[in-house]
Design brief:
The complex is a heterodimer of chains A (161) and B (235).
Chain A: E1 2-10, E2 13-21, E3 27-33, H1 40-46, H2 50-66, E4 73-76, E5 88-93, E6 100-105, E7 108-113, E8 116-121, H3 128-140, H4 145-160
Parallel strand pairs in A: 1-4, 4-5
Antiparallel strand pairs in A: 1-2, 2-3, 5-8, 6-7, 7-8
Chain B: H1 2-16, E1 39-41, H2 46-57, E2 63-66, E3 74-79, E4 85-95, E5 101-108, E6 111-115, E7 118-122, E8 129-130, E9 138-140, E10 149-152, H3 160-173, E11 182-190, E12 195-201, E13 204-209, E14 218-224, E15 229-233
Parallel strand pairs in B: 1-7
Antiparallel strand pairs in B: 2-3, 3-4, 4-5, 5-8, 6-7, 10-13, 11-14, 12-13, 14-15
Classes of the chains: A alpha+beta (161), B alpha+beta (235).
Amino acid sequence: MIGYLSVKNIGNKFTGGLLVVDQNGIPQEFKYSEPVTPTKLQRIIYGKALEKYLSIEVIAKTLLSKSETRPAVVLTDDVNIVEAADNVFHISKTASEKEGIKRVDEGEYVIASPGSSYRLMGNSDLSEDVLNDILSLSESIDLLEPFQRLQKALEYVCSEQ
Amino acid sequence: MFRAIKDLIETLKMELGKINVVDQELSISTNALDVEMPKVSVALAEEVMNVNVNEALYSPAELDVITTSFDGGNVKVHDTHSFSAITACVKNVEVGSDNVPCVLSVEPVKERVYTSNVMFHTGYAVKLFSIKFVSPEIRSGENIQELWKLTMKRAKFVEKEKVLSALERIFKSYSGDVKDLRFVGYFKNVPVGRAEKIIVLNEDLVVFLKRKGKNLKVDVVVVKSPEKLMIEVVR
């Protein structure tokens, strides 16, 4: 199972979601945080660090600690959130590479399946099993597609508040 | 004015010759008026501050925190675009990653805050307030419908023979004019065992997933006729 973690600022409300999918991209777990609206005083005191602090310390770490399925790897679309845990990796599309898994550097990989290549960056190395799981999922779905579902789900959560 | 007086004296000296003139610096003293600036008392209870001070003085986007002053027991919040500032006594600071204050309780120090030509007194109400963020409630949301719509892109690489064979089967089974058929794409690993409904949206295949079902995935060719969507499994 692979986790997808995203924190969004929707209408000045910060909310995050953790979607865990199986090898077919089918949801196994979805946890979201109640939206947090910083006060003006908090915005002043935290200054430019506010968004990063809220994303990592307040929302991402709380979401990860409450996960029941505990995925071996969690992918995120925000490079800052990589700091939340060792198994959190930023994922982005990259230029086409030779199919397969390539270790670029410590905690950095390129995973290429037919038609799509992705760059993963984190703070530690991933096991071969986990890398193969990601490669396998990339052959079934666009690895960034679950972020679209997360975004829509979080927009729904905020609209309901 | 000084110049005019000096010129006058010089002229007199030249004209009268014998008059002794003491060369003396002239001075003018001015009693400047002490202008009292308009005073606004601002109680720094959090709710008052939010309404009066912040909105009047600060635009949060332009503010920055001088973090280095935390150790000294004071935190200064500066607006870099004007002279306005708040000084507050830090009661408790816990620093998290990247030296970001994660728990900060501050108490305003009695002092004056100037901005433009308006002076504010702060610190009349010495009330502790905290900017600590409470961990948000975490909820489960597996029932949110948006999570169960799997959007699949067309495969960029196709197995030509298999796709042609699937297309041939579609053409044979179609009773209308094959010119009306439009090829949508070849999609790999479609979870048909969990599909409740399949539609085509912007050239993508959107699979509405069921909560339960068989773990069955197939590669399919999708063709659109004027009446319906035709999906043929690639064997």
